[in-house]
Amino acid sequence: xxxxxxxxxxxxxxxxxxxxxxxxxxxxxxxxxxxxxxxxxxxxxxxxxxxxxxxxxxxxxxxxxxxxxxxxxxxxxxxxxxxxxxxxxxxxxxxxxxxxxxxxxxxxxxxxxxxxxxxxxxxxxxxxxxxxxxxxxxxxxxxxxxxxxxxxxxxxxxxxxxxxxxxxxxxxxxxxxxxxxxxxxxxxxxxxxxxxxxxxxxxxxxxxxxxxxxxxxxxxxxxxxxxxxxxxxxxxxxxxxxxxxxxxxxxxxxxxxxxxxxxxxxxxxxxxxxxxxxxxxxxxxxxxxxxxxxxxxxxxxxxxxxxxxxxxxxxxxxxxxxxxxxxxxxxxxxxxxxxxxxxxxxxxxxxxxxxxxxxxxxxxxxxxxxxxxxxxxxxxxxxxxxxxxxxxxxxxxxxxxxxxxxxxxxxxxxxxxxxxxxxxxxxxxxxxxxxxxxxxxxxxxxxxxxxxx
Length: 453
Hints:
By secondary structure, this protein is mainly α. It has helices at residues 2-82, 87-99, 103-120, 122-134, 139-145, 155-161, 166-175, 195-211, 216-244, 252-259, 271-289, 293-302, 315-325, 330-337, 348-362, 369-386, 414-431; strands at residues 146-150, 178-180, 187-191, 265-266, 269-270, 391-397, 402-407, 439-443. The longest helix is centred in the N-terminal third of the chain and has 81 residues, at 2-82.
């Protein structure tokens, strides 16, 4: 009996273990089933999302198809409209459509049109050439736009020109002047309407000739040094002007600005010569009637200082603004402001400054208005080019018969050069009056430098 009881207990124990294992297995099966259900639900959701996305894409394609059809209808209507336009209207409409196409296509269209015009306009080109030769710079212009450098021998000219002309091209491009290598022995001429630019070129060329090593990289280096040295020259000239009329309390910045008078003319009069003349006439008048001598001298000295300043407004407005910034006496500022009678006279000194300026300008042979108009036209040429954001520098050369435009290479492509040149040409043709023709020469240069260490 005890043995039977023990076996019974063992069987019951094993039965309980089997039941527990069965329960654990059932739980595992249930969990796996639940996990599979979750995966299936997720797949179902993903499929549903994809179905929604596909539906949205289908709707988008349908909308694109509608837009395409709409555009097609609009173009059809435009073509129908063109069929009823005049020749001029059709040309205008066509050009508008061309402008909207790629820049390369525009450039190609312009080139093709110009090539076609070249073949058809041979007679017109001959007439233009004759007119350009007839309108060449005269001695009257050269007197104010040419500087001469003396050289020891003709070999110097060859070194300045360089192999295949590379030196002279680099020099003219960097300085914005023209070098004239004519048959006159022992001299090189520098031509430019801008006397400051011409002086920088003169300083740089003299140093290059003295150095003897003339090459493009050294030209650029010497021109930069000349620009820095010119500031010293301007201060020295301004100080010399002040000392010549016994004025020693002028602010340093104003002295440098006065030095610009050396390289500026007004109606053909050199500004330093004109200013000295006005000061001396004004001083004599002040001594005669007992006016304030200091006010007269300062008023005469600064009356045209606005002509060498950049900014919006007349030279009187620019000059008055500058003098106020430096806290000059009110009587002096009034004299400058009133020397063209833009504002009623407020003192005897103002009247005397006005009279002295009028006497200097009115004397026989003092002024030549044509040169002023010429310089204004040259400056407008450069301004038209510089108004384009792609342009880095612009130089009017050949007495205004050519505008040399240097662009930022990263702001414009080679195809874009054709469009830019055409645009500048049209602006010049529409806004300026000039003899003969003006050539627009646009230059794009890309430089890459590496240093081997």
